[in-house]
Amino acid sequence: MEAMMTGMINNIFFIIFPIILYQMFATAGQRNFFVSHRTTMTVLFSISIILCMVFPYQFLTEDYIFDLRQVPMIVGALYGGPIVSAVLFIVSAVGRIAIGGDGMYIAILNQLLVAAGVPFLAPLYSRVNRWWKAVLVFSISILSLLFNMFAGYFIFGDPIHNLIGIWLMLMLNQGGITILTALLIEHLQKQEYLYNSLMRHEKMETVSHFAAAVSHELRNPLQSVKGFVQLLQVYEYPRAKQLEFQQTILDEIKAAEELIDDYLIYAKPVYGEMKHLEVEAELSHVIKIMSPYANARNVELLVKRGNSLSPILGDSQKFHQALVNIIRNSVEAMPDGGKLEIELETSGSSICVHIQDEGVGMTKEQVNRLGEPYFSNKSKGTGLGLMVTYSIVDQMSGEISVQSELGKGTRFTLEFPKLTK
Ligand code: ADP
Ligand code: MG
Predict the structure, then answer these.
(1) What confidence score (pLDDT) does residue 209 get?
(2) Would the pLDDT of 162 be above 80?
(3) Domain 2-200 classified CATH 1.10.1760?
């Protein structure tokens, strides 16, 4: 009995292992692994079949040796279709011939019937719910054992009534394990499906946020362009006035263009464009583009550079965007002007960028909500700037920490892993 249990558990392991292995190595996001990875599954299931046949187990009495090769055959035929089924049949038939013995022809004939017949049930199988799937695989499993039983009786005269108990146990045993295997696969596929729809949902969310942000922000410049054009249509302005209006229109269009650039940088695909970035050079660029903005608001930009030139990994434009969004907030936090300190610091394994202002500061609750979409305390804020920054820094495997005190100021720290050249 103990030998039987061990043998059976080994067989179960041989069947489950390819499924688990697949789960471990498959790339997430590919639904229905038997359809998208037929070859892999066929190879893995062939290995299961061979292992099952090489290590069979005694069933109840010493006369009966049994293995569970039918389980991968049935499951493979149902999920993989006729070609997978044919390959698995060849593997098991060759294996069975190698083992030899009395039952060989019956076994091979039985396997042929399973391999040829079960794929016809595949369309039905894929339509029904999992309880009917369980019923279906159980029935197939039992039918194939019944075939063995009767074939043994008619060809070799094996007495059924003596062994009926054993046959029933076998049917329950193999049928139960087939059900478990099928349910395991169903479960894994369902997980995969849920994961995929979650990803899709998240992408949709991001897209709709950006659609909302861009349309919201574009409305203002468009409104003013429209207003000026209408004025120009209705009144006969002097030349100087016309030029002034036209310049305003051009400015508004430029603002709209910049806005589109800002947000579309974020919407660009993430992967495949991560490059080595020299933080110092990137920072200089950002400071150059932000200086006019800061100066116009009486904010003094102070820069302390580090001494190391270790690169980090990221997309240059996105990195700029992340910094610009923080700096813009810091400048906005100092309506009466002040000092904005930007410091580059290199430590053992990371590079930090500190951005410190002497602005209005935030409460703990506000700090905790930073990066949340639409979280804004400004009358004309979008609450998207820091969401973009957080997401970019996250894509670069960096981290953001914020220290802030109401009325005193705020310090943003971006920390990135250093790349060794
Ligand atoms: P927005 O600037 O459009 O409001 P952000 O995502 O850029 O959206 O910022 C969210 C909120 O975080 C701001 O409304 C502001 O209240 C707060 N905040 C961000 N940076 C600072 C800062 N340096 N000082 C004070 N408050 C800040
Ligand atoms: Mg902002």
Answers:
(1) 62
(2) no
(3) yes
